[in-house]
Amino acid sequence: MPLGEKAGFEKSQSRYCGVETEFNDNVPQLLNFNLFTSAFDFVVASLMNPSYRPSLLEKDGVLPFAASDLVLSPSQWSSHVVGKISSWIDLDSKDETLRTASETTLKQEIAWANHLSIQACILPSPKGASCVNYARCVNQILLGLNNMHLWLRIPLVKTDDDDVMDVNSTSFIDSWELWNAFRLLCEHHSQPSSLPSVNSFGRWFGEPVTAAIINMDSFLTNGWGYPCLSKCHQKLITGDSLRRHPLRPFLDYVGFLFRSMDPIPEQERFEPLMDNLEAQTYETFERNSKKYIQYQRAISKALLDRVPDEEASAVTVLMVVGAGRGPLAAEETGHKLKVYAVEKNPNAVVTLHSLVKLEGWEDIVTIISCDMRYWDASEKSDILVSELLGSFGDNELSPECLDGAQRFLKQDGISIPSSYTSFIQPVTAAKLYNDVKSHKDLVHFETAYVVKLHNVARLAPSQTVFTFTHPDYSTKKSNQRYKRLQFEIPCDTGSAMVHGFAGHFDAKLYKDVHLGIEPSTATPNMFSWFAMFFPFRTPVCIKPGSPLEVHFWRCCGSSKVWYEWCVTSPNSLAIHNISGRSFWVGL
Ligand SMILES: C[S@@+](CC[C@H](N)C(=O)[O-])C[C@H]1O[C@@H](n2cnc3c(N)ncnc32)[C@H](O)[C@@H]1O
Question: PRMT5 TIM barrel domain spans which residues (predicted)?
């Protein structure tokens, strides 16, 4: 029974709970006891007799390591068994006999598991600080594997910096460092009692963690005698994660924790196609009522300031530039309005016409089918309303469009939004990085992506990058920008791998009414925008206490706008997307 069988969870969001077992020759019996007469989903089982050593093979000429593959059907092997690779294996042992035997056995066990169609095998933790040969063997194996996953067991331990002053001393242990060394040696291959500090285990949320192995020692006993986990362990599991089987109460409790997690809200499950303004895209925008509520509040406040109640009979000219299919223009205001809806997309203009007709607004609303940068308006507006924002604020060229539109805003007129700011923060995002890397070209490493950030560790608070204010009548006005930033990662995090930046925006619509996705101030229930991800060509490892220095440019040419970015500390990375060679937005 998957842990996630509850209202609000989709099957794909289910989590499964397995039980680690001792070696048992009789696999059907093992399954019967742990799965069918109790409620675990799978067993983690040794596939080879632990007493097996390759030298036995030479002596006896027999394979003593396992029962026949026929004891289970292929679907049982693949859905109910995760293979446990022999824990005695030590591929970095100084003892050559042990090292060679380990290599032979590892390959043999994986080959056997593959033959059984097992979905995944758990590899034992590296034995010491060095895991070079282990990583080399696993990398070799990964190259030949098709469907089977390898899970590397890593204990969750980190000694406090306070406990050990010298991080290079042998008593300093940070299992993330071990994992990091291992995955670097495997070229970032995409398969891959007390707890450390929240910041340090937070790093794991950006890593490809497939299974959490909860040791029975981690459980406490509550007042009623049932197993429970400390708050810290609960937080780790619920993350962003039994004849009556003796472990059944433990399973029930982990299931209870999983069910107590909030289901992912409906709006987080679909992703808009930001660059493709077809009917479906408009529908996605329009489904986000929160955005329109914020705009409505901003417009009402601006109208009140512009036309006090005692002058309510005066006509206010309101222009909605980039009107889309009309939702921004469709707000009830109670003021005398003359509205212009300017829209460059002729297909959206069709909808605008039918909306105006349907609502009987012919006397109030004039539809202008034109690019706002080139429209020759016959009068000026009091209020200019636009929503041309991208996930990074200015990345859909709102500054350039509004430069054109402010020609027809009165000198004392109001722009909604009045300003917007972009933000970045460094993230560990191993999965995203591997997705980008899988394209095997430079273009993908120099492209910014609009993505829902699922598996990321946010390593430091966001910092502001670029701000644009409207209207802007200054004579030296330029939309080019440059910013240098330094990020400090909390000391108790330990070392961390940065795969790139998460980008967000916040827009000031009018006075205190804002709209944004920057995590610390995000507008609740807003899903029109996902984050932006700016990858690095090479991930950067930062050590505690050494800052990450980054540079960001917004560049403008005659026909395009683009970003360039680079890192200069702790080590330098090449400037990404120089001259907009890989990624730009056309003017
Ligand atoms: C993000 S959509 C917002 C639509 C609508 N205002 C809403 O909030 O649902 C931006 C709209 O601006 C239009 N647009 C973008 N640049 C424009 C320009 N230079 N002139 C006129 N319309 C433009 C696009 O076609 C699109 O309909």
Answer: 40-238
Residues 166 and 295 in one domain: no
Nearest by Cα to 328 from 384, 370, 368: 384
The residues annotated with a catalytic role in the active site are 387, 396
Whether residue 443 sits in one domain with residue 338: no
Work out how many domains the chain is built from and give that number: 3
Q: Is the pTM of this model over 0.80?
A: no
Our answer on whether the CB atom of 492 is closer than 6 Å to any ligand 1 atom is: no
The CA 320 to ligand 1 mean position distance, Å, reads 9
Does residue 342 sit in the same domain as residue 436? Answer: no
Each residue of 233-268: pLDDT tens digit?
777 776 654 456 777 777 777 777 777 765 554 444
Task: Answer whether the bond into residue 471 is a cis peptide, omega within 30°.
Answer: yes
Of 360, 394, 416, at which residue does a domain stop? Answer: 416
Q: Which atom of ligand 1 is nearest to the CA of 404?
A: 19
| Cα gap 209→179, rounded to integer Å | 11
Could you tell me if the CB of 387 is within 6 A of ligand 1? Answer: yes
Closest CA to 41 of 120, 96, 97, 151: 120
C-alpha 201 to ligand 1 mean position (Å): 43
Q: Could you read off the pLDDT of 38-56 as tens digits, one per residue?
A: 778 899 999 888 887 776 5
The burial of 225, by beta-carbon neighbours within 10 Å (0-12 exposed, 13-18 middle, 19 or more buried), is given as: exposed
The ipTM value here is 0.99
Q: Say whether both 94 and 209 belong to one domain.
A: yes
- Host domain of residue 399: 279-416
